[in-house]
Inverse folding.
């Protein structure tokens, strides 16, 4: 049903995926060994809601691919597969099939193909793909490289900010690094991972509501809901004391207690979410914002959107390795744009920086 709402054809989506894959098999960044490039395209991503933008991008990509093809021969031992994600959860299924091929059919010993996964979608698509990889053994991850292209509405979790930068990465200006992650362990629930920002409180509620409505609108629905939530969120979720056991990046332990209405933890500082809302504008990767009067909330809201809230009263900022959250009621949790409701029995909830050993390409 969702695909019928889009004006862009699946053929266009496939061509965009195939074009970036053509650049990848000519990339100087990849090792010169057998490589299988998988372009996983999510046609429900925000980018594909704008047909004019898609056609302009296709025209630009065709020129780049033609120029590159004339100048550089493809890796003779390369293969390309373009996968179209049909529904939520499908990107993860596709990656599961790729990993199954790598392990069961090819084996992981000897000179087996290198698998390069291009994620052409929004933060949800990237999150699904990485969650399928995060618990794999190192001998499998050594055969995989991931590249998250910015084709969603917000693109806070992509490896580059623009598609032009993505092309430059593939043309040789990229470098290989490691994907950082947060492991989130609510009491009594299965652990989940975030690869950008995890948070609890009003913003997680906004994420939950926006996810239910965003397919019906072509606007920044997150911000509109956030504006309204300032008014009615305290009625639904009256602020109570949140306790935090914070393990700082230097190993020291700190405890904090307060009526925090928003607590966000990032894989690093200098992070945004909710379509570039700069909740972590500096080096600190933990931000907790205490409850305040309606007038002060309205004043802080605009500062927060611009990343200028850091010096305001009631804003706690820290560089943290781990945070253990204690709360005596229910709250929403969001991780990379996904939202779930935590009940009282799901606290304490632990959020910890972990190594993934997943390789990624960065500009």
């Amino acid at each position: 049903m969702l695909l019928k709402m889009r004006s862009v054809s699946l053929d266009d989506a496939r061509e965009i995926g195939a074009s970036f894959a053509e650049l990848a098999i000519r990339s100087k960044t990849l090792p010169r060994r057998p490589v299988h490039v998988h372009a996983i395209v999510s046609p429900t991503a925000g980018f594909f809601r704008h047909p004019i933008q898609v056609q302009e991008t296709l025209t630009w990509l065709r020129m780049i691919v033609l120029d590159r093809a004339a100048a550089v021969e493809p890796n003779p031992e390369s293969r390309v597969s373009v996968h179209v994600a049909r529904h939520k959860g499908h990107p993860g299924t596709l990656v599961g099939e790729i990993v199954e091929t790598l392990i069961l059919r090819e084996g992981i010993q000897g000179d087996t193909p290198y698998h390069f996964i291009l994620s052409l979608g929004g933060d949800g698509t990237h999150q699904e793909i990485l969650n399928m990889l995060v618990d794999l053994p190192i001998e499998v991850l050594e055969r995989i490289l991931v590249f998250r292209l910015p084709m969603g509405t917000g693109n806070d979790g992509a490896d580059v900010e623009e598609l032009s930068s993505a092309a430059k990465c593939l043309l040789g200006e990229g470098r290989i690094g490691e994907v950082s992650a947060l492991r989130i362990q609510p009491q009594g629930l299965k652990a989940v991972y975030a690869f950008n920002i995890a948070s609890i409180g009003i913003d997680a509620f906004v994420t939950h509501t926006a996810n239910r409505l965003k397919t019906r609108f072509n606007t920044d629905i997150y911000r509109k809901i956030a504006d309204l939530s300032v008014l009615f969120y305290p009625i639904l979720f009256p602020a109570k004391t949140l306790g935090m056991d914070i393990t700082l990046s230097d190993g020291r332990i700190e405890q904090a207690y307060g009526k925090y209405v928003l607590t966000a933890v990032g894989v690093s500082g200098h992070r945004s979410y909710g379509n570039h809302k700069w909740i972590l504008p500096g080096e600190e990767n933990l931000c907790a914002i205490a409850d305040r009067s309606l007038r002060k909330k309205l004043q802080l809201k605009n500062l927060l959107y611009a990343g200028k809230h850091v010096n305001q009263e009631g804003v706690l900022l820290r560089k943290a390795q781990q945070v253990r959250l204690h709360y005596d009621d229910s709250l929403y949790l969001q991780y990379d744009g996904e939202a779930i409701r935590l009940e009282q029995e799901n606290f304490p909830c632990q959020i910890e920086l972990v190594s993934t050993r997943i390789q990624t390409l960065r500009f």
About this structure: The radius of gyration is 21 Å.
